[in-house]
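Q: Sequence in, structure out?
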Amino acid sequence: MDKEAQLIEELVKNALYRMDESTRMIKKSLEAITEDETWQKPNEALNSIGNLVLHLCGNMTQYIISSLGDTEDIRNRDEEFNTQGGLTKNELVKKLEDTVDDAKRVIFDAGLSNW
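A: Exactly. Output:
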């Protein structure tokens, strides 16, 4: 394996590991708060934890799944911040896990097939 292929393999492995570790820590943090706290905003200038999870999913969908995966970008960024509830912590975690799984699949495929 040449140096470029080794570098790409290491970058892909590191990205996949970091996504898993970050997801684990987000899930752990969500476990420590109540359903109500998930959607509370400290003030009108700040976002709720629920909004931040939706925003993270939006970022991964736009910048990884759509861009690297060559699919249509259908992101509605304003909705990520305007949502004031409607999803439970478990539903947010499921959305995050599904988005991370899709992003990891795209990164893995792009890292192996495009180089």
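The mean pLDDT is 92.
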